[in-house]
Structures are given as C-alpha cells and as structure tokens.
Amino acid sequence: MGKILIIEDEAAIRRVLKKILTEENKNYEVSEAEDGLIGIELIKNNDYDLVLCDIKMPKMDGVEVLDAVMKIKPEIPMVMISGHGDLETAVETMRKGAFDYIAKPPDLNRLLNTVRHALDRKSLVTENKRLKKKVSKNYQMIGESPAIVQIKEIIEKVAPTEARVLITGQNGTGKELVAHWLHQKSERAKGPMIEVNCAAIPSELIESELFGHVKGAFTSANKDRAGKFEAANGGTLFLDEIGDMSLSAQAKVLRALQENKVQRVGSDKDLKVDVRVVAATNKNLKEEIKAKRFREDLYHRLAVILIAVPNLNDRREDIPSLVNYFSEKIAKEQGTTPKTFSEDALSQLKDYDWTGNIRELRNVVERLMILGGKEITQRDVEAFASK
C-alpha cells in the first residue's frame, strides 16, 4: 500500500492526479493539501511514502516545501510538479534532493512510472533501516564495568576516523562485537562490512579468498572471482584471527594497506580498493613476531589503535546485565517468555570460572532457561550450569 500526499493549489489538478493514482492502484491512499503550509503540517503528523508537490504555489512554494521535508523527513521521495516556465527550477530541485519532476499537464505513463519507482525506493530505504536496526540489536555491547566503559569511549573516538584497529582478546570475549560497533559508528556504516575468519580458511586458499582469482589461476578456478577486499570496497574488512594468516598472504595484505591496491591470484592487474581494515587475534602478535610467524611491518600497519577486550572473569560485575540480555534474546528467538534469575543464582554465576568467556555464559543461560524452573534459582545453577 502506498500512502501519497498531493500538494497543489489548483483543485482541478489535485482531482485529476488523485483519480489517475487511485484508478491505477486501489491500494494507493491519496491525501490532498491546497498549499505548502498545510502540506508540511500533514507531513509532520503522518508517515507518507511519497509526496507530489507543485512548484509555484502561494504562501509557500514547492522549493521551500522540499527544503523543509529534507530537514524533517528526508527519507520521503519528493516528486515536483512543474509548469512550462518552471523547468529550470525543477531541475534545481533535483540537486536539492527531489526524486524527480513531472511537467504539467502530466503524461499518464511518465507519472505512473515515476510514482512506482519512487515508492519502490521508499520501500528499499525502509527495509534497509529495518535491517540495520536488526543488525544493531544483534551487536549490543552490554556492561558498565570500567574496562567496557573504556572500550566504548575508545570506539566513540576512533570509529569516525579511518584509523586501522587491532582488537585483541581470548576466544569468546566479544572481539567481533567490537569490530561491528566500530563499523556501525563509522562514516562507512552505509557500506558493507565483510568478515573473514583467517583461522577457518586453509592457507593455500586464503589469498584467493582475500584477493580473488582469475579463471585458470589454479585447477578449480573455472571463472573469475572477486575477493573480500573488493567486496568490502567503500566499507570495512574485518580480518578475524589474523595471527593465523600465512606469511605470503600477510605480504599481500601489507601491500594492499600501503597502496590501496590488490591483485587477483593469477593476474598482474592492479585493482584499486577503498577499504578500512579492522583486525582481531587471540594470539600475542609480539611473540609471533619473535617466532617469525608474523610480519612486524604488518603489525605496525594494523595496530594504529589497540583495543584489548577483557576476559569475562575480569568483568564479573557485568554478568547480571549479560544474563538479563541473553535471557530476553534467547526467549525471543525461541518464542518463549524471558525467565528471571534470583540474586543467589546471579551470585553463583558471578563466582564461576568463565574460561569460555561470554560465549560460554550465553550457552549456560540457554541451558538454564530450558532446564530450570519459572525463576532460575541457585539450585538450578548448581544442577545445570556445572562445568
């Protein structure tokens, strides 16, 4: 269903436009405004999917309406209606953010095509916002311990820059979460975030995965394939467990960072890339450098900003908040009601040795929600959360 507002001072034209639109699609809900001031008030108080707005109107002209809408609800597509003498102004409105313009008298096919395209764009914008909101909810940083507060403060300062970040910490501490926060709060948030788990890809395939390959580069390369650097163009490339990357791949990553260029495996052609690299590792890279398993020059390229994610044992005061968050999240996933945890149960969980960190805590919360009573008690924890 499309909710459309027509702002036009000539009643006859409003009637014609409304008739065309409602006959085209019975699901179009069309409202009218006789001048720009009334139109702005309607836009403030309603969620329109499209606005058709005349340029020449008394009280407030279409250009002023467009400027106001761009400030209050810029996601609404604005289609300007121009008289014969308004063509130059109509083109100028496109530069200001209008979706399109239609000349008077409106051509039927052009009008309907423009309306369809504008509504399709509005639908895409709405869906993208929904997906981004969903992604943001999936990557929340829970806790107010000093260590977590410090990480949040660093992210706020670093995310808007282009500085490369190296995230360190044990498995299960939330390094991926930090990387997602950096991306979401950066100027690149509208671009892609591409993740590569360097430990999960065989060393002989890592270069093809990162840089792509051309047809015939190796036995199974039956067609050209873009790599992750190309896929992340304009966004962020997250290299997880970079300490497991082969030395030959490290050399190529170093070149990519130095020159903002990559070469597909089997090609000598340079491809320009615009990528912010965020890396993570559970290893001590300085020890890896001493053992000649990691390039020192690459380390210094990656570690412009260092973020050390603490073990759960070092932030036990965050456990009650994490338990509550996981309880609600798991209940939503399973279509059940979140369970409360007694103070004794929370105290017991705070005393555990969390060698698997947050990942282990989440598994324990899920187990307790399935096997425990309506309220999770200390007895439930002792019975079901044992190592």
From TrEMBL:
Q: Does the keyword Nuclease apply?
A: no
Any keyword ATP-binding? Answer: yes
Please state every residue range assigned to the domain named Response regulatory.
3-119
Span of domain Sigma-54 factor interaction: 141-370
Which keywords does the record carry? ATP-binding, Nucleotide-binding, Phosphoprotein
High-level lineage: Bacteria, Pseudomonadati, Bacteroidota, Flavobacteriia, Flavobacteriales
Residues modified as 4-aspartylphosphate are 54
SUPFAM superfamilies with a match to the protein in the record = CheY-like, P-loop containing nucleoside triphosphate hydrolases
**Species this protein is from:** Mesonia sediminis
- Give the protein's recorded name: Sigma-54-dependent transcriptional regulator
Q: Which CDD domains match?
A: AAA
Q: Which PANTHER family match?
A: TRANSCRIPTIONAL REGULATOR (NTRC FAMILY), TRANSCRIPTIONAL REGULATORY PROTEIN
